[in-house]
Amino acid sequence: MKYSEWKNVKLSDIADITMGQSPKSEFYNNEGIGIEFLQGNRTFGRIYPDYDTWCTKPSRIAEEGSVLMSVRAPVGDLNIANKRVCIGRGLCSLKTKNNNNNMFLYYLLEYNKRNMINNQTGTIFGSINKSFIESMQVRIPKSILEQEKIMETLSTIDYKIELNNKINNNLEELAQTLYKHWFVDFEFPNEEGLPYKSSGGKMVDSELGLIPDGWEVKEVIDLFNFVGGSQ
After folding, report:
1. Quick one: pLDDT at residue 1?
2. Could you tell me the CA-to-CA distances from 153 to 4, 103, 107, 129, 158 in Å, in that order?
3. CA distance 120 to 114
4. Is 220 helix (H, G, I), strand (E, B) or coil?
5. Strand partners, 68
6. Would you state the pLDDT for residue 121?
7. What is the mean pLDDT of each run of 10 residues along the chain (231 residues)?
8. Would you state the pLDDT for residue 231?
9. C-alpha dihedral sign at 128, 131, 134, 136
10. Would you tell me how many other CB atoms lie within 10 Å of the CB of residue 90?
């Protein structure tokens, strides 16, 4: 792609920007009543956020599919709203004006994150305001088709990473469940393949409580050799 096929625009030229506004705390809850609420980026995932707070009287709304951006430290963190949500003062939402290509906007903002971080204000907790976001200069392809090609390539990679992360998380949960079943509940398979303890496996006293017969309690230092690092 030639350099001349790109153009400089202000972010406000291509996106509608909604700054978050926090409802009063009396309208918050953790019981799932009302609309999902995000005060900031605390529950951001890789692409989509999780939710643990709801609001019964929302002040500002981010529409489903819009880009969520943290405007307070850490500035520039991004997610996509996977549903219609209430946003507090720590966030803003952005939607493309003409082509509804919000995923391209997501990657455009990710690319320009360093610029936002470098221009944040505040000595302790950095932040950016609507005026800065609106006037921020970005460079985009003139062709909508080229924008879509960029979005499709990057989103395909991101979705594969997200899927792999979910698989890894499920495997980790499975491993933890199996570990507890075998080494805490002592339900590892006996010689007949049955759960040891609940199938009448013999248990004996130890300084840690009851353990399977034939097991013993030892200190870690008795089992491993430790090699310390040096400077």
Report:
1. 45
2. 22, 11, 11, 31, 9
3. 10
4. helix
5. 79, 93
6. 79
7. 76 96 95 97 94 96 97 94 97 90 95 89 79 95 92 92 91 96 95 95 94 92 80 61
8. 61
9. negative
10. 21
Are the CB atoms for 16 and 61 separated by under 8 Å?
no
Length of the chain equals: 231
Question: What is the C-alpha separation between 20 and 62, in angstroms, rounded?
Answer: 8
Q: Could you give the CA distance from residue 59 to residue 57 in angstroms, rounded to a whole number?
A: 7
Q: Please name the residue that has the structure tokens 């709203």.
A: 81
Q: What are the phi and psi torsion angles at 189 (to 5°)? A: -65, 135
Two tokens, residue 10: 């202000």
Residue 22 tokens, joined: 């926090």
> Position of tokens 């792609």?
1
22 closest CA partner among 87, 77, 85, 71: 87
The Cα–Cα gap between 152 and 86 comes to 28
pLDDT, residue 162, reads: 85
> Could you tell me which of 118, 62, 116, 117 has the C-alpha nearest to residue 86?
62
The sheet with strand 61-62 has its strands ordered as: 28-29, 54-55, 35-38, 85-87, 61-62
